[in-house]
Amino acid sequence: MQITAISDIDGQCSRRGADILLEILESEGVKYIFGNPGTTELPLIDALQKRPDLQYVLALQEASAVAMADGYAQAAGRPGFLNLHTAGGLGHGMGNLLNASVSQTPLVVTAGQQDSRHTISDPLLFGDLVSIATPAVKWAQEVMHADQLPVLVHRAFNDAMAAPTGPVFLSLPMDVMEEMSTVSAAPPSRIERCSIAGGLPELARHLAQIAPGRLGIIAGDEVHAAGAAAQVAAVAELLGAPVFGSSWPSRVPFATSHPLWEGNLPTRATDIAAKLGDYDAIFALGGKSLITILYSEGSAVPPGCAIYQVSADIGDLGRTFYTPLSLVGHIRASLEAFLPLLAREIEGRQDVYASAREKVTARNRDRRNAALSIARHRMEDPVIAPCVAAYEAVRAIGPDIAIVDEAIATSSHVRSFLNSDWPAQYSFLRGGALGWGMPAAVGASLGLGREPVVCLVGDGASLYSPQAIWTAAHEKLPVTFVIMNNQEYNVLKGFMRGQTHYVSTRNGNYLAMDLNDPVIDYQAMATSYGLSACRITRATDIAAAIQAGIASGRANVVEIMIRAE
Question: Does position 282 have pLDDT exceeding 90, yes or no?
């Protein structure tokens, strides 16, 4: 591709900093730049005219840009790249940047900075971007000269993918983007991260000594990043052990159709301990699998239950709970080496492990049937129950379409109905800051090669970043946005009702939690952004509406009126 440049006296090619940055991005395999431009980003926007293979994905607000890059990175399995606008734009994006940090999503985050030659005069839009970004990223730095771009940008991509994965930040002053330089863009380094953990024979002996039926496995989010679902399933099958998901997951990284899939753990420490009370040991794959939200007395790990771990993140091993043995290594590579060791340790006892496996399978079959029975029994409720909305939505979506979920009122029901061989089908809001789901679904579709995605989102959550649906329409992406509308902040009301000492509970008056005065018109909102929309009030209409939305191949909105429970 021909790039306009100036030759210096040595005959080398001199280019603007913005051109050098784009050369580096192409060398790193970047396809999309997510952002919302302002004055300080204009050199980069102008340089894109000469790089048609790099596509700028326009978000209408920076929080949406961050979540789009997050959804893309999780779906594509590579860092997302985004460009924000000075201090204000970085501030707008901080909520979703904190989400990405908690979810350990690899992002290379950049923001335009004022021309450094006049920062001494405190110009408009100037701010200390490095200090603003630092709490939400692995590291933050400002580029001082165009010659620094190759080292710092390649470093950013490397470090975003280094365990623990996560976002990094670079501030890009306007004069650096305009500065001429002959520096080479340099190719990216190749770094092999699939290291095999040490201590695997000892781990095999430990797990083989646990009585069949007394070991549980937790498949954490890191299983998804490592592409290790098949290896986790093989370990579970050998040991006849149930596989739990994290208490508050970013992903469900295990095939939900597998007979040993036990579902996700609860989010209160006392409830987690009760769930794990029948086990002598837990084999946790990946870190931070026992996240709690609200305080409850006692540990999430019941007394006498040992924790064994494998994770690429050495800082997470033994961080909260004592472990007799935990190993540092890439989960997939380590389990591949571990499986033959484990098979030898349990040789001759396959029958007892098979019996344990059959018990778990029967229990999970009963659990699924009970959930289905409740949903089917409530199909005729006058107002659609959350469990019914979840059941019909999952039935309509099927096993092969990606789901991005930020509908807290129905999320636990949705996960109970999932039944897919695809361990990457489902993603969820791990960071907890609302406004992630709709833009993340846009990014997920791009990360999957513009494949269909269904976004489940609560009515309250949809109002944090509704402008993301315009990007879906603009990019002609097949994303169906399903708004679960109960006209209130239902989760908050539910918590308050459980607090008998609250005044709100005693008088039935919940301040700042109703979204019905005036009623919000989500149909009009969708239409204003260029999407078709429909409102569903009968359970029997849910599946057909979602299936029609998916079949349209276009961005669309399905609003489901659900009961507040």
Answer: yes
